[in-house]
UniProtKB/TrEMBL annotation, chain B:
It comes from Streptomyces demainii. It is an enzyme of class 2 (transferase). Carbamoyl phosphate binds at residues 55-56, 105, 135, 138, 271-272. It comes from the Bacteria. This is Aspartate carbamoyltransferase.
């Protein structure tokens, strides 16, 4: 069955946002009807009885590596991985080579995304030239470019200079932009290799203290409030960070935050293996942090899940811990990890998953056409999940060019069966179309 | 015995006492005119040193040679490693050359663990110091030295260090010697107190099986052995303490402090010493200081470790090797 050959597709028996079974008719790029016993005339019918239907997932934090590190990922392989994971839009981080700090580079990434056809690619622009934290990049030019950049981040590095951060927050108000901060006080994390705590003390690995994240968050929510702008905090990893975001939101400030799937599941105890597949930035924290992050995602203090998909070639992980690169791939396992940590634990229902993985990230990125209700007239950006499925993660089957997953050999629930990007199937029966 | 020696924490009390007792037996060899046993004839021991450490390397080299093993010294400097070869490729090369044991010193914490568990090599791995993690043979030779001095009559064969009070002073944060000693001494029943300025105690130390003190004078009067750790002068520039002189005044061991130690108590130092910093010349050269004796004991301990790992018993190690040689 070739999905793209037909104009009409009828999904039979889908549990829309986990609710009662409904039929969903897709016509062209849009949802034509949602109801029971819909007429199948002229449509390709897919029986998806019992499967969960969600709006297409949106990732605010993806490293596609192109241009510059095509040995680890390209826009094409990264968007294939995204589609396989149920995503219909990803935000491509700016730490490429060259850095996405000009209109030219963001337009190149945007164009490569259009050509891939698997998933919308919304480039993120660097806040400062070369991610060096010294001089503002041409934020306006990136916004005015074809890529229409609205999210700016020096991710991988922290905008640590308080004045530069203040200016960036102020400047993007002119076009409704948002600064996505990688919160890491650089002096407190020199030589940092893992979470600073009981395990780092034993292993003799340089500590990355929670306070290095929390002190920047505290400063930046205050700055955002002071200048009346929007700040988004990338990959929250500590219980203290949660408290700060909760406090900032209680003040009514325009502050949002994301958490990665791996920070919802894994802890620094895994580092005892010295296996660099667990090396990531910010580092894996403690069980108490994991529980605080889950609770905050459930109650909405943390707005969304973002993968921080960070592909690395094999040789950058097949070495001693100190020499290894930081980061994990995550697009193809994100929904499974969220089901495992949030849904199967009763913390979040499927409507909540739709909110945290599609609606809110779209709102933060002001992304048109994504994170919309499953309703007639809306763009048919949709994801179907077989939540009853149980499988062992095998990176050999990944669409991503890289294999650095911390879940290899681990049993996780859920499997993306179909992904639709504006009515066209990018994933069919669990395989890339 | 285990197959590798990566961490002092991996040793049970019986493992540790067996190593100390074996070292005691092997130490008698040093008094003979011909200091050599045929035990490891035909076996190859590689000293793989990614960090310069002449003292530790020659100690392992002497140990292996006294057991008649073939010794290959592989120093990262001036080798393919300095041209960017990975730990993995170096390991595969050594494996191809038939290394029965690899003694590794590496600047990255966990590198020996990685070498032993990655499947790159089949031989035994001995950690000769990794980053700021561990240095288990140093802890063993320290325990050996303590047992000889503190066990009353004789060298203390069969005994552990139950109830002995050991004080370790200095840069605990960056010290692999301290980490290995805390694990091993706890296993052997000793009561350990770490003394350092708060800046040089690791965050998260509360889970360690020892006491922490910031005041050397408060503990020096009730200790059976004081171990002074080397303090690198560079630490001063990173604001761990204000000046060398202030460090020496508060945490150095001088004649006055030594005089307040119990009469039987010994002064230990893993070397190399910073005279005038953590230890004065008066103390370093006194007959209570065991630094030179520790060096001699190091050879005996490393002989015992190589002997036990490479077939000195009939346990899994020996069976393993037979399997591999098929």
């Amino acid at each position: 069955m070739t999905m793209s050959d037909t104009d009409k597709t009828l999904l039979r028996g889908a549990k829309v946002l986990g609710g009662e079974p409904r039929d969903v008719l897709i016509e062209g790029e849009r949802i034509a009807a949602v109801g029971s016993g819909l007429d199948a005339a002229g449509a390709t019918v897919i029986d998806v009885t019992g499967q969960i239907l969600l709006p297409g997932l949106v990732d605010l934090h993806t490293h596609l590596r192109e241009p510059g590190r095509e040995d680890s990922e390209t826009v094409l392989t990264g968007t294939k991985a995204a589609a396989a994971g149920g995503f219909t839009a990803v935000h491509a981080m700016a730490n490429t080579f060259p850095v996405a700090d000009t209109a030219g580079v963001v337009e190149q990434v945007w164009r490569l995304g259009k050509e891939s056809g698997y998933c919308d690619v919304q480039p993120v622009g660097a806040v400062t030239v070369g991610l060096e934290g010294k001089k503002l990049a041409e934020l306006g030019a990136m916004h005015d470019s074809a890529a229409g950049v609205r999210v700016f981040s020096d991710d991988g590095k922290c905008v640590d200079d308080a004045v530069i951060m203040r200016r960036a927050l102020e400047y993007v108000k002119a076009f409704g932009g948002v600064i996505a901060q990688h919160a890491q006080e650089p002096r407190l994390t020199e030589g940092a290799q893992m979470n600073e705590g009981v395990v780092s003390a034993e292993l003799g690995l340089g500590g990355w203290p929670a306070v290095a994240e929390e002190s920047i968050i505290a400063r930046d929510v205050l700055l955002a409030a002071h200048v009346g702008s929007r700040v988004h905090i990338c990959h929250l990893s500590t219980a203290g960070s949660v408290e700060l975001i909760r406090w900032a939101k209680s003040k009514g400030w325009n502050v949002t935050a994301e958490v990665t799937p791996h920070h919802l599941l894994l802890t620094d105890e895994l580092v005892r293996s010295y296996n660099p597949v667990y090396k990531v930035n910010p580092p894996l924290r403690t069980e108490a942090d994991v529980m605080a992050l889950r609770e905050a995602l459930a109650d909405g203090t943390i707005d969304c899940v973002a993968t921080d998909h960070a592909p690395h070639p094999h040789e950058d992980k097949d070495c001693e811990w100190g020499a290894a690169a930081m980061g994990m791939v995550g697009l193809e396992t994100a929904l499974s990890v969220v089901q495992h940590t949030m849904v199967d634990t009763g913390l979040l229902d499927w409507a909540g998953v739709a909110d945290r993985m599609s609606v809110r990230p779209s709102a933060i990125g002001r992304l048109a056409g994504h994170g919309r209700p499953v309703a007639p007239g809306e763009p048919a950006n949709l994801t179907l999940l077989d939540s009853a499925y149980r499988g062992v993660v095998n990176p050999a089957g990944f669409a991503s060019r890289s294999r650095n997953t911390p879940y290899e050999g681990r049993e996780l629930p859920g499997r993306v069966t179909y992904t639709f990007l504006r009515g066209r199937a990018t994933v069919v029966d669990g395989k890339l179309a | 015995m285990k197959r590798h020696l990566i961490s002092a924490a991996d040793l049970s009390r019986d493992d540790a006492v067996l190593i100390l007792d074996t070292a005691e037996e092997l130490a008698r060899l040093a008094d003979r005119p011909i200091k050599k046993l045929p035990t490891l004839r035909g076996r190859t021991v590689v000293n793989l040193f990614f960090e310069d450490s002449t003292r530790t390397r020659i100690s392992f080299e002497a140990a292996a040679k006294r057991l008649s093993a073939d010794v290959i010294n592989f120093s990262a400097k001036g080798s393919s490693v300095s041209k960017g070869e990975s730990l993995k490729d170096t390991a595969l090369t050594l494996e191809a050359m038939g290394a029965d044991a690899v003694v590794i010193r590496h600047h990255a914490s966990g590198a020996p663990h990685r070498l032993a568990t990655s499947g790159w090599i089949n031989g035994a791995v001995v950690n000769a110091g990794d980053g700021t993690h561990e240095h288990p043979t140093q802890a063993l030779l320290d325990a050996f030295t303590m047992r000889r001095h503190l066990s009353g009559e004789g060298p203390g064969v069969g005994q552990d260090l139950a109830g002995r009070r050991i004080t370790i002073v200095g840069d605990v944060l960056h010290s692999r010697v301290a980490r290995s000693n805390v694990h091993l001494l706890a296993t052997l029943g000793a009561e350990v107190t770490l003394v350092a300025p708060p800046t040089l105690v690791p965050f998260g130390v509360e889970s360690w099986p020892c006491e922490i003190s910031y005041d050397l004078d408060a503990v020096i009067g009730k200790t059976d052995a004081v171990m002074m750790l080397r303090v690198q002068r560079e630490r001063m520039n990173a604001a761990f303490f204000p000046t060398e002189r202030e460090y020496a005044r508060r945490y150095g061991l001088d004649g006055d402090r030594m005089a307040r130690m119990p009469e039987h108590a010994i002064v230990m130092h893993p070397g190399p010493m910073n005279r005038g910093m953590e230890i004065t010349a008066e103390v370093a050269d006194s007959d209570r200081c065991t630094a030179v004796e520790q060096v001699a004991n190091g050879v005996s301990i490393r002989m015992a470790v190589l002997y036990l790992l490479l077939g000195g018993n009939e346990s899994a190690v020996a069976a393993d090797r037979t399997e591999e040689s098929k």
